Amino acid sequence: MLLKDYLEENMKKDKLVKAAGVVMVISMASRVMGFVRDVLIASAFGASNSSDAYFMSLTIPNLLFNLFGLAITTTFIPLLSESYNREGKEGMFKFANSIMNILMLISIVLCVLGWIFTKEIVAVIAPGFTGERYSLVIFLTKISMINILFLSLNSGYTAVLQTLDDFVAPALVGIVMNIPIITYILIGNHHGIVGLTAATMLGNGLQIVIQIPWLIRNKYKYSFKIDFKDTKIKKMLMLIAPVIIGTGVNQVNEVVQKRMASGLAVGSIVALDYANKLNMLVYFTFASAIVTVIFPSLSRSGNLKKYDEFKEHVSSAVNNINIIVIPAIIGLLILRIPIISVLFMHGAFDEKAVNMTAEALFFLISGLVFWGIRDIFNRSFYAIQDTTTPMINGAIGVGVNIIMSIVLVKKMGIGGLTLATTISALVSCVLLVKDLRKKIGNINGVNMLKCGIKILTSGLTMGVVIFFINDYLTQLLIGFKGQMIIILISIVVGVLVYAAMLLLLKVNELNTIIDLIKRKFKRTKCV
Question: How many C-beta atoms lie closer than 10 Å to residue 266's C-beta?
Answer without folding.
Answer: 12
